[in-house]
Amino acid sequence: MQVSGTRQGSLRTNLPGIAQYQSFVPSSLDSVLPLEFSEDDIRQLARTSRKVGEVEGMSRFVPNANMYLAMYVRKEALLSAQIEGTQCTFDDVLDPSVDAAFQGDVADVINYVGASELAVREMTHLPLCTRLLKETHSRLLSGVRGSDKQPGMVRTSQNWIGPAGCTIQTAPFVPPNVEDMQDALSELEQFMNRNDIDPIVKAALVHYQFETIHPFLDGNGRLGRLLITLSLINDGVLRMPLLYPSYELKLNRSEYYDRLTAVRERGEYEQWVRFFCECLASCAEDAQRSLLSLADLHNESSATIRSGLGRNTTSGLALLDYLEEHPIVTTSMVRDALSVSRTTASGLVESFVRMGILRDTDVTRQRYKTFAYESYLAILREGGEPLA
Questions:
Q1: What's the distance, CA 354 to chain centroid?
Q2: Does the structural domain 309-381 have CATH classification 1.10.10.10?
Q3: pLDDT band at 145 (very low <50, low <70, confident <90, very high)
Q4: Taking the domains of the chain in order of start, what are their residue ranges?
Q5: What is the pTM assigned to this prediction?
Q6: Tens digit of each residue's pLDDT (9 = 90 or more) over 97-119
Q7: 358 CB-near residues (< 8 Å, 6+ apart)
Q8: Torsional class of 379: left (φ above 0), alpha (ψ -120 to 50), beta (otherwise)
Q9: What is the pLDDT of residue 296?
Q10: Who's near 22: CB < 8 A, 6+ residues apart?
């Protein structure tokens, strides 16, 4: 790693002799403020703030926004995991009959969902702090790949980032050593709760600094991306995690990593914030489109149910609500969710298939059939295919 200038930090030499290596010591974020934004940067920041605010505003008026929230959290979880190589799709995460070959990948995504829900719940009585991050990290890695890497514990040994087979001496990036990491994490905790910085700028800087500190042995990327949303919630910009920033970071994965590296090597904070703002604005626009499409679909499906089910309309609308949280179902799931007989559940599912709301996912299968709310899934699937 080559460091030009000192704005972003410096390299520290560790250990003597052939074991010698250099780790990065990041500057505190307080020391790099104020950033020097161009007029274009300021306009982009204003646009991003406006777009994120519009999503937050829509969430207060769109029908069933809380139902959609469950899907948005799953989408963000999937996209974040895909950045790091997970190969499952959106349907795999939701399908109760998913093939066992994908169970490991699906478990990673489910853990992210649980970690997100835990963090948002804990933030009702805790500030955004190291304790909360450790609890969230523990949930993130519980029982999945990485569970042997001290979940919930800040690392006590040196880590490094690079291609398979590289050593600490040849790695492109070596995060702070343990002592420097502890100092940097303490400074970051204080920075996260400053209230005199634009929340979008703060989220960008917090994400960069967390990824640079790399305080855990595994899961830093996923937790760091979740931290973007948590920072916006902490600052009151969002009430709920209705954005999925990993979508744009996934689409621009190479530039994403290049921009982080450029801050570490050349102190290009402003360029990183500009890139972050562009991604977040695009993410907010996509969330707006999805929210509107989902709301329109809800109204269309409700009208279809009211005109097609007669005296079973109440049960049909209850099933629609359930489908907006579980868009791939079995008859048994419907029976249990609605507390009805299997015959009634089967009749409802058949009616939904007849009305075009549900689709039989495999017409050749005679038993253990699954049914998909296809129009709903089509809106949420965008961008959900694994990276090549």
A1: 36
A2: yes
A3: confident
A4: 9-289, 309-381
A5: 0.92
A6: 665 445 667 888 889 999 999 99
A7: 323, 329, 349, 352, 371, 372, 373, 374
A8: alpha
A9: 93
A10: 1, 11, 12, 13, 14, 174
Could you tell me which residues are beta bridge partners of residue 372?
328, 359
| pLDDT (tens digit per residue) in 179-194 | 999 999 999 999 999 9
How far is it, in rounded angstroms, from Cα 143 to Cα 123? Answer: 24
What's the angle, vertex CA 179, arms to CA 178 and CA 182, rounded to 5? 85
Handedness of CA 118, 120, 123, 124 (dihedral sign): negative
Assess whether pLDDT exceeds 90 at residue 153.
Answer: yes
Nearest Cα neighbor of 33 from 230, 236, 260, 209 is 209
Residue with tokens 């709310």: 373
| Structure confidence by residue, pLDDT tens digits, 39-67 | 999 999 999 999 999 999 988 877 777 77
Distance CA(189)–CA(297), nearest Å, equals: 42
Specify the higher pLDDT residue, 119 or 93. Answer: 119
Q: How far apart are CA 344 and CA 72, in angstroms?
A: 31
| Residue keyed to tokens 């207060």 | 60
Q: Which CATH number fits domain 9-289: 3.30.230.10, 1.10.3290.10, 3.40.50.2300, 3.30.460.20?
A: 1.10.3290.10
What the block records as the tokens of 176 is 């702070």
